[in-house]
Specification:
60% helix; single chain; 175 residues; mainly alpha; 8 helices
Length: 175
């Protein structure tokens, strides 16, 4: 008895090669300037292919989520959290490129500068080992939320933390 499984977004290329290909949502496609997310698969069948499919699906979803973040959410993120997100995006941009590492970085950085992209993304491409921004009050609140507030507690603790955060940031900005 054989079990077969059909994976979505996989198509077959010439020579039996396979690729993951998924259309970007319209809003993301406009920002990225491309219609499809596509990557060739290294494996052709078996559990390794399923693992690779899962990783590519997660990468696609993370990219869409990052692009769809509202301006307000990005403004409320700490500089350190933004830096980590931008480093992941830079790594994704550099993954599919072939050639010398320094040359590829220069080409990608040139494209970012030409399209007047995010300066932080430009820095992450050019200087991947640059020191992240210093910790801020926003990092402390984010850490507290991750460590101390559980989903099972309901909305109360999260709302209380949001109020304390807002009042604290207002107090710090006043002086």
């Amino acid at each position: 008895m054989a079990v077969t499984m059909k994976l979505k977004y996989i198509d077959e290329l010439s020579g039996g090669r396979k690729r993951f290909r998924r259309r970007w949502p319209k809003d993301v496609a406009e920002v990225r300037g491309e219609t499809f997310f596509q990557k060739p698969l290294k494996t052709r069948s078996g559990p390794a292919m399923v693992s690779e499919w899962e990783a590519l699906s997660a990468d696609f979803e993370a990219t869409v989520a990052a692009h769809r973040r509202s301006v307000e959410e990005r403004e409320s993120m700490s500089p350190r959290a933004l830096w980590q997100e931008v480093q992941q995006e830079a790594q994704r941009l550099l993954e599919g490129a072939h050639g010398g590492d320094e040359v590829v970085r220069q080409v990608v950085a040139g494209e970012i500068a030409q399209s007047q992209g995010d300066p932080m993304l430009y820095r992450a491409v050019i200087q991947p080992d640059a020191a992240p921004p210093a910790y801020t009050l926003a990092d402390a609140f984010d850490l507290y939320e991750r460590e101390k507030i559980d989903e099972s507690q309901g909305r109360g603790p999260r709302n209380r933390l949001a109020r304390v955060r807002k009042k604290t940031e207002e107090a710090v900005d006043c002086h």
